[in-house]
Amino acid sequence: MEEAENVTAKPSHQDIATTPAPAKDTRNTGPGRLLIAVYAVFAISATARAGFQILTKFSEAPLAYLLSAFAAVVYLVATVSLAKSGRTWFKVSVAAVLVELVGVLVVGALSLFDSVNFPHETVWSLFGRGYAFIPLLLPILGLIWLYRRRPAPKQA
Amino acid sequence: MDAYFYIILVVGLVSTVICLGAGILKKAPNDTTILSVAAVELSLLVYLVGSIVRVAGGEQMAGEPWEFWGYLLTALLLPVGAVYWAILERTRWSNFVLAAVGVTALVMAARMNQIWY
Hints:
Chain A is mainly α. Chain A is built from five helices and no strands. Chain A has one domain (26-148). Chain B has one domain (3-116). Chain B is 83% helix and 0% strand. Chain B contains four helices and no strands. Chain B has helices spanning 3-24, 31-56, 65-88, 92-116. Chain B starts with a helix and ends with a helix. Chain A binds chain B through residues 1, 4-5, 7-8, 13, 16-17, 29-34, 37-38, 41, 44, 48, 52, 56, and chain B through 26, 28, 64, 67, 70, 74, 78, 81-82, 84-85, 88-94, 96-97, 100, 104.
């Protein structure tokens, strides 16, 4: 959470009711903070869950548990990249959120139609039903947020 | 589900409602919202002390002990991190971050109860 410190360097907006204009190329203020917080919770829980599954019962369902681990990595990358400022981190964020969206849609569909090969729970199973469908909602909100705070086009 | 869960359920829901309300009313984090999150931390600490006493008294939990303690210690870190963040940026959005603590804590408490019984 150290990344958030650069926020204090910005001039403070006394009128907290209005959304501050995106003066800098950052996505870690305002609604972005809530997004990062939810991503952080998912990163922690997905990492813990995947670690637990792989350490204790990996042989039961290697594919499902590797998917869990992959989801955990995606959430970690998304959390860190959303908290960082700059054009490169923006691209990393877009990539991570897109991978997350594809992941939740593909794994969600597979777990629905091919329950034989995907009987074991992952974060993305059944479109994230075990997590109140937040995994499905999160990448959509993430893309909206990234679009609203996209870096200004390069000056020619 | 035991008393520890119901305490966290009530405190967590109240805290979430207070913080959500403050966020919707476009208020920055204030004493009320931060204290409500502190109450969540306190109820988690009660769960921690109670669990240590029960384990010391020879009670066995049904699930994996290290999974239980992992959940509990992670849950204890959440309010601290959220309040720290809310102090760094005092906007209405930090209240929504604080609101997430109560819900997360009660979901984790439910899971801890499942592991224990």
